[in-house]
Design brief:
With 318 residues, the protein is an alpha+beta fold. The protein is 17% helix and 46% strand. It has a 19-stranded antiparallel β-sheet that branches.
């Protein structure tokens, strides 16, 4: 038995050391998370949750928040869940996976409202200090788009994937026309008879709320919303486009967005599906043709086949 004593001592020390390390990291995680949520409150966000628990010993670090709710002061941007479970390991401190039950939220005031029974995702801190955040509903839990521009009933989305990649804040020249990149966005989703594929980028100081004050600050700092590629199909309609948009003094879209609409002869129905106002069939613009139609959003004005037809409404009303 004596020859095994050194090995047993080493194993005992290793177990005690690992246990001490795990509990130290777990305690720090709980403390840092509570501090981060408190800091969000100090920055003007509304942050609430019922309980925060850390467990998972010995194999993993597992943090569970019950009924977390985060929103801006005006409620224009919000997210909530019945429970949020975040998991990592001691040997993968830069990667976290999470599972949210009864998740939901809204964007742009009440313009977009979504919900999902189960949402999963991952958060990775890359070596260049960029955050790589990815979301997707569980396979048996499609995401429901309860409200969105151009829809008159809830839309069930299948095979949804959203990726957000942040950029580190950098100094830019004073004479620069636009701010540095803030976040890259990739969104893909399918419905029963269509799909959405979007790639874009947001530059500027960040949008902390959906109000005239915060959107005006973003606009005045050189904020820009770039649509690198948009491909939208629904029924017999397919819309493709690209462009760059900001906001004018009246908070209407400002910039240029070029796209083409391939439709089955019902142009106004298709425009409504995009959340745009119908146009009048005046001979110059045929709304009953089945050909490709050119759409342009420029300086807050919608043009169809090069002919201005309507002015876009403000994106926010305080």
């Amino acid at each position: 038995m004596l020859p095994f004593r050194p090995l047993l001592i080493v194993l005992a020390v290793a177990v005690i050391g690992y246990s001490a390390l795990w509990y130290t990291v777990a305690f720090r995680l709980e403390k840092d998370t509570a501090a981060r949520l408190s800091a969000w409150r100090d920055q003007g966000l509304k942050v609430d949750y019922d309980t925060l628990d850390v467990g998972g010993f010995p194999y993993r670090l597992e943090m569970t928040l019950t009924k977390p709710r985060v929103s801006t002061r005006s409620g224009g941007l919000s997210v909530r869940a019945g429970s949020l479970q975040v998991i990592s390991h001691l040997w993968t401190p830069r990667l976290w996976v999470f599972l949210a039950d009864d998740a939901g939220g809204k964007l742009a005031g009440d313009a977009v409202i979504w919900s999902s029974v189960t949402l999963r995702g991952s958060l990775r801190l890359r070596k260049d200090d960029r955050l790589d955040l990815r979301f997707e509903p569980a396979a048996d839990s499609p995401l429901s788009l309860d409200r969105a521009p151009g829809t008159d009933r809830p839309v069930r989305l299948n095979d949804v994937f959203l990726a957000l990649l942040t950029h580190p804040r950098t100094e830019i020249p004073r004479d620069a026309l636009f701010e540095a990149p803030l976040i890259d966005i990739r969104l893909r989703a399918k419905t029963e008879n269509g799909l959405l594929d979007f790639t874009g980028q947001v530059t500027g100081t960040g949008i902390s709320d959906w109000t005239e004050k915060t959107l005006g600050r973003w606009r005045d700092s050189g904020g820009l919303f770039t649509v690198t590629a948009l491909d939208l199909m629904a029924g017999g309609t397919r819309f493709r486009g690209e462009g760059s948009l900001s906001l004018d003094e009246g908070f209407r879209p400002l910039g240029a967005f070029n796209g083409s609409l391939v439709q089955d002869g019902r142009l106004n129905r298709d425009l409504a599906g995009l959340g745009l106002e119908p146009v009048t069939d005046n001979g110059d613009i045929r709304t009953d043709t089945g050909n490709e139609t050119s759409l342009m959003l420029q300086m807050g004005v919608l043009s169809v086949d090069g002919i201005p037809v309507s002015r876009l409404p403000p994106v926010v009303r305080d």
